[in-house]
Write a structure and sequence with these properties.
Beta-Lactamase; 17% strand; single chain; 13 strands; 12 helices; five-stranded mixed beta sheet; rod-shaped; six-stranded antiparallel beta sheet; alpha+beta
Length: 500
């Protein structure tokens, strides 16, 4: 309810009513004060004009003249609603109304200065040597009128009477009319202002709703321009412009903020990568550095003087240096993958050819360990990815299988299969090796860097503990599935890749 009285519509309605009341009150005041004054002034001036006309044109002996002059007086009396009486000291010479003299009894009872034996009120409006105009009220009937008494040049006396009651009645009727018109104006004005304010307040309410939406950072709603070229349309255009600029500015701020957060995140990752790299290198290089230091000191001190032992010491040192170099390179590559600093050069290639190349490279080792390979694919199978990194994934899985293979039923075997994935558009590559299963609690841990399940993955095998972590990083970046599961006679690793 309070909001209704605070609305522009109600304020306009109340303002209109106040204006109408003030205008009506003004006209009533003017009607009561000014109208009567103007009426009295006009009647006074009219009576003086008639007096001058009669005084200038009246014959010396009025009763001896023709009816022409008397008819002129009759006409003047009718046109001005005056009653005219001309007489001398003893008798009436001319009167437009016989009731005129009856108000006074006899002419002798109307002296020039009007001593008012029959009057109870006087109000002098005009007084000169020969002319006197007064407002008087008759005791006989209570009628108010204006009375002019004057001496004419021919020696007669002139009396002109004008009733006041008509103007009072007119004022009263006019006031009633103004009251009625005021009431009607308020009613009609109220109805009109309801429709008019609705037309004006509706777009204002719409603009208010749009402003509220903008305060909630919703800039989709816009004001519909009506091409009226008025202030509301101009305000609507300004609101739309403000909305567009705010939206653009906020979007730019969001973009800048997002970019800043991204940069902070990248910087944070770089710092984390640097710390992790230092920690990992420090941890993993302790053993090879100690070995190198020990064998180097042995060479310096000639612990073994024969050539064969010195050569063995040098080969151990070289082997450890190569392992350190390989470790650092693989660790750097892992860091770049994990912290999004490596971009893939994806292309279409034959994955069967990549797998066959990995098998060929390990042929000597496979022969030494008496490992059989079961890979039956010969036709090209095309995939879409970075062949360099996919080759690393296959090579890490294959190397891991070779290192951990054990004979089952007297046979060491590695099986490689390529089959459709459950996810449409992808292929699943599996590499199985015979041997012991991985303990359940270690199935997730093996993907962590430097984690080793058992002694079979020790330094003598040449492992760095980073291979499966690299697989995890590559597959995570591609958002492809990867994993390991224990099978009946061994362990099977798998990864998925996009089919071309």
């Amino acid at each position: 309810m309070k909001n209704i009285f605070k609305s522009i519509r109600m304020k306009l309605f109340v303002t209109l009513c106040i204006v109408i009341v003030m205008v009506i009150a003004f006209f009533i005041i003017v009607n009561n004060v000014v109208l009567e004054t103007i009426y009295y002034a006009s009647k006074k001036d009219a009576s003086l004009e008639i007096y001058q006309y009669i005084n200038e044109n009246i014959p010396k002996r009025l009763e001896e003249n023709t009816d022409h002059y008397l008819a002129e007086l009759e006409k003047i009396s009718i046109n001005n609603n005056f009653e005219i009486l001309i007489g001398d000291a003893t008798e009436v010479i001319y009167a437009t109304n016989s009731n005129f003299i009856e108000e006074f009894g006899t002419l002798s009872e109307i002296p020039y200065d009007v001593t008012y034996s029959i009057f109870n009120k006087t109000d002098i409006m005009y007084a000169q040597e020969n002319v006197n105009i007064r407002k008087v009220t008759s005791k006989k009937n209570g009628i108010m009128f204006i009375l002019l008494t004057a001496n004419l040049n021919n020696g007669n006396q002139l009396y002109i009477r004008m009733p006041i009651t008509p103007i009072q009645d007119s004022v009263e009727i006019s006031n009633r009319f103004l009251y009625l018109m005021g009431l009607v104006s308020i009613i009609l004005g109220g109805i009109a202002i309801t429709f008019i304010t609705k037309k004006f307040t509706k777009p204002i309410e719409e603009l208010n709703d749009i402003a509220n939406e903008m305060s909630n950072l919703n800039f989709e709603r816009k004001y519909r321009i009506h091409d009226t070229q008025d202030e509301i349309d101009a305000l609507g255009k300004s609101i739309n412009t403000l909305s567009d600029k705010l939206e653009e500015t906020i979007n730019q701020l969001k973009a800048n903020n997002s970019e800043l957060e991204k940069n902070i995140e990248i910087q944070s990752k770089i710092d984390e990568m640097r710390k992790q790299f230092i920690s990992d290198v420090s941890h993993e290089l302790k053993t090879p550095i100690s070995l190198i230091q020990g064998y180097a000191e042995g060479l310096i001190e000639n612990v073994n003087s024969d050539e064969e032992n010195r050569k063995f010491y040098a080969e151990v040192i070289l082997d450890e240096v190569n392992k350190m170099d390989n470790l650092v390179k693989r660790l750097l590559e892992l860091m770049k993958l994990e912290y999004d600093d490596r971009k893939f050069n994806d292309r279409k290639f034959d994955i069967v050819e990549v797998i066959q190349e990995v098998i060929r490279n390990a042929s000597v080792l496979l022969h030494e360990k008496n490992i059989s390979i079961d890979f039956q694919e010969e036709s090209p199978i095309y995939v879409y990815a970075d062949d360099f990194y996919i080759e690393q994934v296959i090579n890490n899985y294959f190397t891991n299988a070779v290192k951990n293979i054990e004979a089952v039923n007297g046979k060491k075997q590695i099986k490689i299969r390529i089959k459709p994935s459950k996810e449409e558009g992808k292929l699943r590559v599996t590499i199985f090796n015979t041997g012991k299963p991985i303990e359940q609690e270690n199935l997730n841990r093996i993907w962590n860097r430097f984690y080793k399940v058992d002694e079979s993955r020790n330094r003598s095998k040449g492992g760095t503990g980073i291979g499966l972590a690299l697989v995890k990083a590559i597959m995570t970046k591609y958002q492809n599935q990867y994993g390991v599961s224990n099978k009946k006679d061994g362990v099977q690793f798998y990864f998925e890749i996009l089919s071309a």
